[in-house]
Write a structure and sequence with these properties.
The protein is α/β, with parallel strands linked by helices. The chain is built from eight helices and twelve strands. Helix 3 crosses helix 8 and helix 4 packs parallel to helix 5.
């Protein structure tokens, strides 16, 4: 009879009976950056492979947050995986106690609430990149960021690792801000034009970009200015997006293991959904140095 009638169970009706929707909410913002597109794709795949349905919240980034775009209060989900920076938390988007909904955070720093967390060890990632730069013999290093402030958590973690290694080796290290309006690639491009125009005696020997898309723009600026990479100036990134593998010279970068991070997050969240009541779990994700042709 089921085959003849083409019957399909109604998911909302099933959720009322079972007390579960068999769906997981994914909060990922900032999709102008390919890193977050890759993160979202891997999260969707990991959720689907687990037998749950992914429900996406991909509102436009508002200074790196979800702003008023989040619709989590309207979702029927069993749990949420949330990428977050700064001080924001799941409680910012819920009416009522946030503890009732299982959550696994993905973040670059520790959180203050009791939800599980996978934290990116950006300090160790920065250390590994700094050691590589010293091994290559560079003595003047610049850290280029498209953002006006350097006190955000991702900046602080990266720079802590850089300073720890560079200061001990007496390497000249400075931060250059290029907070001009426009997409991050464009800001990187403007930084490349500006740095290439500096006198060789003042110009850094290697530029560490805050992320890979800044590095993509920077490389374009160097090309337009006639600066050769890595002959005249070396370049590195941070994130490990797939795009930078296919540049004329693959970018040296610190690659975040996005697939592994998403698989682990889904596993942790489903354990909570299915009744795990142990203490809060806080695990570290260590990025890996990936050496390309730009250093």
């Amino acid at each position: 009879a089921v085959e003849e009638l083409g019957y399909q169970p109604h998911p909302l009706a099933r959720s009322l009976i079972r007390g579960r929707t068999e769906s997981i909410g994914l909060m990922v913002s900032g999709l102008q950056n390919p890193f977050f597109v890759e993160l979202l794709e891997q999260a969707v795949r990991a959720v689907s492979d687990s037998g749950y349905a992914p429900i996406l919240n991909c509102g436009p980034s508002v200074d790196g947050t979800y702003g008023h775009h989040s619709k989590i209060n309207q979702w029927l989900v069993d749990g949420v995986i949330m990428w977050c920076e700064g001080s924001e938390s799941i409680a910012d988007y819920l009416h009522g106690p946030a503890g009732r909904l299982p959550v696994c955070y993905l973040s670059s720093h520790d959180r203050e609430d009791d939800h599980d967390l996978l934290e990116l060890d950006l300090v160790e990632g920065a250390r590994s990149l700094a050691r590589h730069i010293i091994d290559r013999g560079y003595r003047r290093v610049a850290y280029v960021t498209p953002y006006a402030r350097s006190d955000s958590f991702p900046h602080r973690k990266r720079q802590a690792g850089f300073h720890e290694v560079f200061d001990g080796a007496e390497i000249a290290f400075e931060t250059m801000h290029f907070p001009t309006p426009g997409p991050t690639r464009f800001r990187g491009y403007q930084a490349g034009i500006a740095i290439a125009s500096m006198p060789p005696s003042r110009r850094p020997e290697v530029v560490i970009c805050h992320n890979d898309i800044t590095a993509v723009g920077l490389l374009s600026g160097f090309r337009r200015s006639g600066a050769r990479v890595p002959n005249d100036i070396a370049v590195t990134g941070f994130d490990g997006i797939d795009e930078v593998r296919w540049l004329a010279r693959p970018l040296t970068t610190v690659a975040i293991p996005v697939e592994d991070m998403c698989v682990r997050a889904v596993k942790m969240l489903i354990e909570r959904i299915e009744g795990f009541e142990g203490p809060r779990r806080h695990e570290m994700i260590v990025p890996q140095l990936r050496i390309g042709g730009t250093t």
